[in-house]
Specification:
homodimer; about 400 residues; alpha/beta; Aspartate Aminotransferase, domain 1; Aspartate Aminotransferase, domain 2; 2 domains; 14 helices; transaminase activity (chains A, B); PyrdxlP-dep_Trfase_small (chains A, B)
Chain lengths: ~400, ~400
Amino acid sequence: MQFAERLNQVETSAIRELFKLLGKPGIISFAGGFPDSALFDVEGIRAATEAALDEEPGAALQYGATEGHQPLREELARLMAAKGVRDVAAGDLLVTTGSQQALDLLGKTMISPGDKVIVEGPTFLATIQCFRLYGAEVISAPIDEQGVDVEALEKLMAEHQPKMVYLIPTFGNPSGATLSLERRRKVLELAVKYQTLVVEDDPYGDLYFDAAPPPSLLALSSEVPGSRAWLAHCGSLSKVLSPGLRVGWLVAPTALRERAVMCKQFSDAHTSTYAQATAAQYLKAGGMPATLARVRAVYAERARAMGEALRRELGDAVSFVAPQGGLFLWVRLTGARGQLQDANVLAKRAIEQGVAFVPGAPFFAQNPDASTFRLSFATADVAKIEEGMARLGQALRAQA
Amino acid sequence: MQFAERLNQVETSAIRELFKLLGKPGIISFAGGFPDSALFDVEGIRAATEAALDEEPGAALQYGATEGHQPLREELARLMAAKGVRDVAAGDLLVTTGSQQALDLLGKTMISPGDKVIVEGPTFLATIQCFRLYGAEVISAPIDEQGVDVEALEKLMAEHQPKMVYLIPTFGNPSGATLSLERRRKVLELAVKYQTLVVEDDPYGDLYFDAAPPPSLLALSSEVPGSRAWLAHCGSLSKVLSPGLRVGWLVAPTALRERAVMCKQFSDAHTSTYAQATAAQYLKAGGMPATLARVRAVYAERARAMGEALRRELGDAVSFVAPQGGLFLWVRLTGARGQLQDANVLAKRAIEQGVAFVPGAPFFAQNPDASTFRLSFATADVAKIEEGMARLGQALRAQA
């Protein structure tokens, strides 16, 4: 059978091979990118579905508008307004089947084969592959702990005239980095200056541990004239409420949003109204702030425990910035005193010691940095984290 | 903003313009393509979600495998086995976000720009648009009340060497036609002879009124050597259980299915596990046969009432074949005795009389037949159907 040529653009084996090893008994995994299911508000979600079936059984179970279930769109607009986003009404957002679908719709709507897209190096692996499936040439912009280097970004924009710039400005995956307020303004100015769509993917912004991060690009866009016209924003309920509902959303300029709606019509018709009606009732019932507070406290404790254990067990073999939110700790093997500097080798040795993580190289669209790796602190409790870091230390010191 | 070139391939205005008019107060609509929400088994679905949250709250709310929730895959394999499908195990099917997504994944996986796809004329509008978005040239094969004309189909296959042949063999949308057993065998033989993927879209097969239709192509493929390797089958729970769950599935040869899984990973990661776990529990509880029996009885009554009223009210101005299942009645304006023969004109006059339907022309990928139109008998009760057909008769006789 001859498949579509676009499939030649993607390569998924690197991480898949690793994930196959995760089935080993007794393994402690920091490889996943998901929230802890023990923190889900099962009873709140159950009550929300009950309410949906009591109040609107027809709507909750029937086909719905491609744009989304109207009560949910209204709740999501309220949720964003509470986070400082002005002038985004229910009608300005499109509900998507997880924010992964928002990325897919952006690819389908915007990218012709050969178009260029700039992403952070490193960035979310599934974004790179999603855009490549639409024929994009994906270009990597350097980042540091303050997020993307805006001077380097401007040079790349001027040189490549990309169709889109894709950023995870807050608690990035995998970097954990957060774009500074100053750089956020600069990014919005660049969008206007180069008339280029900037995509803000923001699944982690709510998951801060102490101080709130700077306002989202979407919130900030009201202060940078013209920038809203070049900004798309992807939101998600997956990291706090439940990934299994598959409820995300896309805010985008009207012409783009309308085309994304058309593409969605032929992608999956609409997002599950059952899940949407449940999410709407949950938000309406007002349970989100308490759930968020609980999740933040647990992840903050785990992040701190992981940072401390990592420092204790691996010492100067690693460098990292303690995460202020999100799910991830991004680590670099320093190679100090001749210690191991290849994260792929460490990953293999770690599996032998009963601990798993994802090496950093696949997260780079270009110029992979093989000394990096990603640890998720979200799903293991503190005792498991400490045991896991001890095993990681053993893996580092193990003979090849 | 410059959008992707693929958007130039699609045109959705025809039906959209019509749907805008449906908001008119008091209108009786036969335009929809959806089941009657009054027939949904709300309590059975509620109990299924309760069971999912009691037994597997983590799995029902967490990220899941892209291939689908394993308990649901097993129930769907059982469901198909009960309909005579042999040798399809849980692992042979991919759960999709409604069967619309199965079509999208087939497009993404199979179609390179310029590839040809043969469909029935008329066929499901969203299939045409979905495949065109991937750059397909969509070619129309003629049908009659026995489904696709297999001789014409073979000529088109020989001439165009298509990447796929897409059929709705049972109670087609919009045609209502069902492919005969003899033609089914021939289609499978053509798939093997021309080494061409045949896609069987089967959302309506369970909705028969009296005698069961011939076995699905998937069931029949065990009798035609080599044909399984060239057959994809799309199933759906939308027409009987609930469209709002968005649960469909794709059965396809391994190499194709694996690539569709990869494409789905970057399309929406996976279908809502909440909806999947609910569907799995519903099927496991054994409620499907009773629900199906109730739905069949109601639609059979409405189909008969519509046929009789249509004959009574419009007489020799129309020709149609009484449907034996599904949701649709496909009508041709005969133009007898100088009567109106343009369904677009009739549609506009009908709206003025307070009744709506979809003209047939947009359902044709090529050579639209402007004398045809589609009536859905699923969502209006018998009294509404009779009133609606009376209004349609008035519309026919109204002065332009």
